[in-house]
Write a structure and sequence with these properties.
Blueprint lengths: L1 H8 L9 E2 L4 H6 L4 E2 L3 E6 L5 H15 L6 E6 H6 L5 H6 L7 E6 L2 H13 L5 E7 L7 H14 L2 E7 L10 E8 L13 E9 L7 E7 L4 E4 L22
Helix pairs in contact: 6-7
Protein name: Protein ImuA
InterPro entries: ImuA, P-loop_NTPase
Organism: Sphingomonas oryzagri
């Protein structure tokens, strides 16, 4: 309805963002319908050890925000590529993101990365961009984040800034999150459970801040669901045999 009204009134996409539902009603309501596409979002790993989990969560958000068939560009630093571990194509496929849609850009330093990111986010045929930065580079200031936010609003490209080993600071991001890995619940026959995360909404523009959720990623449905707490009995996996409840 908001989008229809926006088209009738001739508003730009920046005035009426399209939301990508995440699959959890309470979270989608808090966000006004889901993750706003064509906006800059910041995701902070709660601890350095949560970097891989935060990267996985970011990839899942990107999958939900990507238009059908559009590519995802992932920008990271050479030093991170050497010492922080490389992105795993089988791992991306395991969470449902087709590696063939991913274009990896490895840049020499934060200044070069942010310049490339600004160009990437301005390119409307691109579905989304992950901008991965570690620690607190001087080049990432309020002006740089505002440049990315404006580019995302004008092009409609969803920009996800992944921050590892960093503390939140003033920025122009539409939302800001803190992400940590959480225990998963074993599936049938003690198979590994769905990837689980503890997330906190630290800030969002134009709407109330705050809120915590424990989520798990359901690859088959390509959505999030509320994760049961450890120690509770959970039903069998969707599509599995109708057997006795599983032990957490």
């Amino acid at each position: 309805m908001r989008n229809r009204i926006a088209r009738i009134e001739g508003l730009r996409p920046a005035d009426a963002p399209i939301h990508a539902p995440l699959g959890v009603d309470s979270l989608d309501r808090a966000l006004g319908g889901g993750l706003a596409r064509g906006r800059l979002h910041e995701l902070f790993a709660a601890e350095s050890a949560d970097g891989p989990g935060a990267a996985g969560f970011t990839a899942m958000l990107a999958q939900l925000a990507l238009p059908a068939g559009a590519p995802l560009l992932w920008l990271r630093l050479e030093e991170v590529e050497r010492t922080g571990g490389r992105l795993s194509a089988p791992g991306l496929a395991q969470i449902g993101l087709d590696p063939a849609r991913l274009v990896l850009l490895v840049l020499r330093d934060p200044v070069m990365l942010l310049r490339a990111a600004a160009d990437v986010v301005r390119c409307s045929p691109i579905g989304g961009a992950v901008i991965e930065l570690w620690q607190q580079p001087r080049a990432l200031d309020l002006t740089a984040s505002r440049r990315l936010a404006v580019a995302a609003e004008e092009s409609g490209v969803t920009a996800l800034m992944l921050r590892v080993d960093a503390a939140p600071s003033p920025s122009a991001a539409h939302t800001r999150w803190q992400v940590s890995s959480a225990p998963s619940i074993a599936l049938e026959a003690d198979a590994p459970g769905h990837p689980a995360f503890d997330i906190e909404l630290l800030r969002q523009r134009g709407r109330p801040d705050g809120g915590r959720w424990r989520l798990e990623w359901r690859r088959e449905q390509a959505r999030f669901a509320e994760a049961p707490l450890p120690g509770f009995v959970v039903p069998a996996a969707a599509g599995g045999p109708a057997s006795a409840p599983l032990r957490a």
